[in-house]
């Protein structure tokens, strides 16, 4: 896995992601404590609303920024968005009203809606080999889990000597250092994109996504993941501080347990994926998450909750790490940025549903009912995945092109009659072939 770090460009991008996510992890803890300071026992509702605003920015702006990114230099685009994020976080320690939190969260996540898909779509160009890319995905999953493990532990340590608003300063430093690391590398040129109008570029990724069966199944699986994950992100602070009567440091430890489980799965996944297909691994992870959330009402205290959160975190990594492999298998190089943006937008649309649902259920009916309600959503979503994503999902599909003229270049290249090759949705294959073998 560590061999991928020999590539200088990936090494710098990996470090950029690491420092940005450590800073983001500090803000995750600080934002929960800020919500508690502003709203008390209704902190879960405030967090649910803030995170829903984050999802609105992701869902509405990711495809637009992906189309914009096709027309701008890749490195300059990433650099500008890192600096915008740093500037926004500077204001968070000074808010005094809940609505101010909502405004700043929207601006911050609007920048992230552009940065994250563009960053993710760059990695396959840096590491084109599938094994190297799989290892890179696991390493990147580990860095994302540092938001759940090392950052909360660091936050817990800092909270013993400083007040929580200081944690936002760590996020600013992380984004600035990330920008400096991006500047130090020359990023690969994008594959030439087709000349399209801006609206066609904006919707291209979603059109490819919705026309590909495995991606439709992936989208619904993300609803199961979001249902379970929303319980963690929205209601952990209320579980620990209101139900167990503990403090901010213990909230950080609960988040850390979730991250520890996810990191363990990320370490094991490269070898696991050598022997198993992506679909059963991801279904198993989603099942762990949904079952874990259903057990939340049985937790008697912090230690038991941390153990359960670790199991759910393990399942979370099983579902999220292979996503890049599936997207690469489903899109041409020139379409990858659009498809990554579509994944970002559509998956976060699921979180847009479950974040406010988690906050509302917890506030209106109690945490036990919230956990059971979210688990029910997850079960329904998993049943839908089994129908939408075929168990037999080969890369190469048998099909023909009855609608093409006999002298079409594609047919002259040896693709006349019934033939087989890797299929991805494009101008020649606007619909998924019905005939498979």
Automatic annotation (TrEMBL):
Localization, UniProt: Cell membrane
Membrane topology: Multi-pass membrane protein
Source organism superkingdom: Bacteria
Keyword annotations of the record: Cell membrane, Membrane, Transmembrane, Transmembrane helix, Transport
Pfam families assigned to the protein according to its UniProt record, in alphabetical order: MFS_1
Entry keyword Transport: yes
Residue ranges of the TM segments: 12-39, 45-69, 149-166, 172-189, 223-244, 250-269, 306-327, 339-358, 364-386
GO cellular component, one term: plasma membrane
Keyword hit for Transmembrane helix: yes
Gene Ontology terms for molecular function: transmembrane transporter activity
Segments forming domain Major facilitator superfamily (MFS) profile: 9-393
Coiled-coil ranges per UniProt: none
SUPFAM superfamilies, per the entry: MFS general substrate transporter
Annotated protein name in UniProt: MFS transporter
Lineage summary: Bacteria, Pseudomonadati, Pseudomonadota, Alphaproteobacteria, Rhodobacterales
